[in-house]
What does this fold into?
Amino acid sequence: MRIPSLLCAALVLGANAQAQAKDQSPWYLQFGLGGVFTTEAEDVVGGSVGFDPGFTTGVAIGRTFELDERLDFDAEAELFYQYWTVDEGDLLNIPSAVDDDAKTFALMLNGTLDWAFTPQYSVYGGLGLGYAKEIEYAAWDSGNLSIDDNEGVAFQARLGMGYNLGGTYDFRFGYRFFKTETLDIENTTTGQVDELDVSQHSLECGFRWGL
It folds into this structure.
């Protein structure tokens, strides 16, 4: 009597586990951390100004839409922050500069295609559009220099690889290109306006888990 009962219990538990696996939530949470490298600013106060590397961090919540057995589409909202500094040598060429801090804080809406070429490994690529609530370049926002508007539209593109750690846990490593709209630097004494047009390149690691 015990053996049939145990077999029945095992079958029921197995069926429940299989059903739960099929009914896994499509929602996920993701955290990322990386290093950022900024392109040189050209034709601004100080001439050609370079930047030292910095760091990035972001947190996103999203939903996965299964397109077929191997291809998924992820739609997510992300809070993204990055910090870096003006090169110390170039900072001296900006007459009123005291602080070398530079940073952005943005809310991004991203769309990403994720292709699993094995059960554990995948590649992804996607685009994002959002709004940078805070864009700071302290070196050009001091003395008689002023950045008129420190917020604006932001754009990004991402490409990388994913590795499934088991269950709903994934590790991701990739590249991110990030850019905000051009900023105007005004010399309040002379009235001259220069355009600050730079972009950021990041290498980052991410950890994702299903909710």
